[in-house]
Design brief:
131 residues; mainly alpha; 2 strands
Length: 131
């Protein structure tokens, strides 16, 4: 590759006298390092909060594609969510039951994010999570 111009050298492939394609002579090896679980979580969280942070609709908040992708990351994100809940109550209380299959929140505390956060932190400690 010509680094000054950003142009990659190619060669023509000829089959039966017909030019078919250009193939790079020196394919670039410039791959981005894979995102860590935390980096992916933070990126998705930022997108999610930017797009739904002003909403009050439970359905819109938990149905957002970034939220769904975070939930799909599974158990690996539980300590990250618990760390955030330890800093202050957050909406991760709605993702944790889907990920863990648990629901430590008392029925009378449903919808009270601070109480729900406390219940999840207690649950996390009881189940050996460290954050």
């Amino acid at each position: 590759m010509d680094e000054t111009l950003g142009v990659q050298e190619t060669t023509q492939v000829n089959v039966a006298g017909k030019s078919m394609a250009s193939i790079p002579l020196n394919p670039t090896q410039a791959r981005q390092p894979a995102e860590t679980v935390e980096e992916r979580f933070r990126r998705l969280e930022a997108t999610w909060m930017e797009e739904v942070g002003h909403l009050s609709s439970f359905t819109a908040i938990v149905g957002h594609p970034a939220f769904r992708e975070i939930v799909g990351m599974g158990e690996a994100v539980v300590p990250l969510m618990l760390r955030e809940l330890d800093e202050r109550p957050r909406l991760w209380v709605w993702a944790l039951p889907e990920i863990t299959g648990a629901d430590p929140v008392l029925p009378e505390d449903g919808g009270k994010i601070a109480k729900m956060s406390e219940a999840w932190l207690h649950w996390g400690r009881e189940h050996g999570y460290r954050w």
